[in-house]
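User: Hi! I'm working on a homework problem where we have to compare a predicted structure to a textbook description. Could you give me the structure for the chain below?
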Amino acid sequence: MARYTNDSIDQNTMVVINFHDHLQPGTFEHTLNLLFESHIDLSYFDEIYANDEAGHPAYDPAILVKIILFAYYKGVTSSREMEWSCANNTR
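Assistant: Happy to help. Predicted structure tokens:
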């Protein structure tokens, strides 16, 4: 069984921002999150990860695909720019 890092969007950061509250219904972000949370099955990746007993927890594939699709939606195609956006645009 694969172990993933905690990626709940209901968690609060040090600034006490609940990311789930910022997903407004009817937006692309809300639809993308809804699709991956309830309609798209990514359990195939669970069989690939062999980190259930050793190793660092992996990032959930759903989060990574959401980041890539949202970045493409915003016109960001560079993986370095995606990484920079993840580090700087969530604060």
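For your comparison, note the following. The first helix runs from residue 28 to 38. The two ends are 32 Å apart (CA to CA). Good luck with the assignment!
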